[in-house]
């Protein structure tokens, strides 16, 4: 089972190649803007340097969102293009679930995990998972206030992480059960690939023709001002 994974949910552009559960290689670019040209270059490099060819892939996996509208559109379009060209199945993985997978092995079952991606102002994309990877609070866009997550924090410790957690820390850190680990967790194709292996084994394939990213919110377009004169 050879799976190529793509994550362009944020400004990090990453690709990874897994075979039979093992990571063969990965590349990440930390840039202000992701482009399709950058992504296709990384894909070609990781497959070639691992000693394989694109035609040998068994599936292509992509982080479906939430995240950057433009980034998700580029990642999903590239993944779908590969699937069409190579006649391979498409796997789609929740970006927040893949983030939780990075930190999950570090905590016992007493903890809940809350990955957060920065949206705008005091809004974040977030979800809550247990340490088995089960989604307890569905992925949503949430405006964070001092009482946010209070019902969860009353029950047990909640680990907040991701770039969205940084701006929420001043509001939530006063609660004894709110934990902000001193580590940077970004969306990554490496853990997209780990979850994609499970999805492949379970046969959770997407309809390539009709699949769309999980934008969560409508894309906001600023209308140009009329020039008078």
UniProtKB/TrEMBL annotation:
The organism sits in which domain of life?
Bacteria
Q: Name one Pfam family in it.
A: TsaD
Task: Using the record's annotation, list all stretches that form the Gcp-like domain.
Answer: 32-137
* The protein, known as: tRNA (Adenosine(37)-N6)-threonylcarbamoyltransferase complex dimerization subunit type 1 TsaB
| Source organism | Nibrella viscosa
């Amino acid at each position: 089972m050879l799976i190529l994974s793509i994550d362009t949910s944020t400004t990090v552009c990453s690709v990874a190649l897994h075979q039979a559960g093992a990571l063969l290689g990965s590349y990440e670019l930390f840039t202000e803007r992701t482009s399709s040209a950058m992504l296709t270059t990384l894909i070609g490099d990781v497959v070639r340097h691992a000693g394989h060819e694109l035609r040998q892939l068994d599936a292509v996996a992509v982080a479906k969102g939430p995240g950057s509208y433009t980034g998700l559109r580029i990642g999903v379009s590239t993944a779908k293009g590969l699937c069409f060209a190579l006649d391979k199945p498409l796997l789609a993985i929740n970006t927040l679930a893949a983030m939780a997978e990075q930190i999950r092995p570090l905590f016992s079952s007493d903890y809940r995990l809350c990955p957060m991606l920065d949206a705008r102002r005091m809004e974040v994309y977030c979800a809550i998972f247990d340490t088995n990877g089960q989604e307890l609070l569905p992925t949503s866009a949430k405006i964070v206030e001092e009482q946010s997550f209070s019902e969860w924090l009353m029950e047990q410790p909640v680990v907040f992480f991701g770039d969205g957690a940084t701006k929420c820390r001043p509001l939530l850190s006063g609660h004894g059960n709110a934990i902000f680990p001193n580590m940077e967790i970004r969306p990554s194709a490496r853990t997209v690939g780990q979850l994609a292996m499970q999805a492949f084994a379970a046969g959770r394939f997407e309809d390539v023709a009709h699949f769309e990213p999980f934008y969560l919110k409508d894309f906001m377009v600023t209308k140009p001002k009329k020039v008078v004169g």
